[in-house]
Amino acid sequence: MTSCGALNIPYSWKAIQYMVTEVQYGGRITDDLDRELFNTYGQQWLTEAVFQPNYIFNTTFTEYHYAIPDASEHTKIMEHIGTFPVKDSPIIFGLHPNADLTYRLNESIAMLTTLVDTQPKEASGAGGKSREEEVSEKITKELLPQLPPDFVEADIEERLK
Predict the structure, then answer these.
(1) Could you give the C-alpha distances from 98 to 30, 52, 86, 101, 144, in angstroms and in order?
(2) In the chain, how long is the greatest CA-to-CA distance?
(3) What confidence category does residue 106 fall into, taking pLDDT thresholds of 50, 70 and 90?
(4) What does the alpha-carbon distance between residue 152 and residue 154 come to, in Å, rounded to a whole number?
(5) Which residues, listed in sequence order, are joined to residue 9 by a DSSP beta bridge?
(6) What is the overall mean pLDDT for the chain?
(7) pLDDT tens profile 85-99
(8) How far apart are CA 12 and CA 58, in angstroms?
(9) Cα separation of 120 and 95, whole Å?
(10) How confident is the model at residue 62 (pLDDT cuts 50, 70, 90)?
(11) Which sign does the torsion angle of CA 147, 150, 155, 156 carry?
(12) Cβ–Cβ < 8 Å for 71, 82
């Protein structure tokens, strides 16, 4: 077992897990299920095992192996960080691949709801259209033509190669 400095005292992984998941970050988590998930991550990843050679944080995700680099120099660690994927897959966090889609959909709906809610409440009598219809028409006529072409991830990846 690893020792604490020159005192040759073994690490208390339970204490480290508590300090990280409850003391340092736990106070910022307001949802009980989020706290439970974060504590689970702490129990899984704050252990002696992560310091074993070739330890991989999630073996079910095969596109990229998240591991602690075997380096102590700053430049080597930064090079390792540079190899991380631009966008993390939900699989690495133990989530279903559709979790990212659901998150983005919910964020879009919340943004549109906020936009609609911040519109003036008084209608100007524009031909009997509701406020929602006016906003939808404005988005369709003014904003949608300004959008860039659809993002096709496969095409972008091919161009980057």
Answers:
(1) 24, 32, 18, 5, 25
(2) 81
(3) very high
(4) 6
(5) 4
(6) 83
(7) 888 888 887 788 888
(8) 23
(9) 40
(10) confident
(11) positive
(12) no
19 DSSP β-pair partners: none
DSSP secondary structure, 113-136, as one string: HHHHHTS-SS---STT--HHHHHH
Distance of CA 23 to the CA centre of its chain: 22
Bridge partners (DSSP) listed for residue 4: 9
pTM of the model: 0.49
Sign of CA dihedral 43, 47, 51, 52: negative
**Distance from the Cα of residue 107 to its chain's centroid:** 13
| Distances from the Cα of 57 to the Cα of 42, 67, 74, 83, 99, angstroms | 12, 6, 21, 15, 19
Q: What angle do CA 48, 50, 55 make, to 5 degrees?
A: 135
pLDDT at 115 > cutoff 70? yes
For tokens 């680099």, the residue is 69
| pLDDT confidence of residue 140 | 83
Domain residue extents for the chain: 1-52, 98-160
- CA quadruple 136, 142, 143, 145: dihedral sign: positive
Separation CA 134–CA 23 (nearest Å): 49
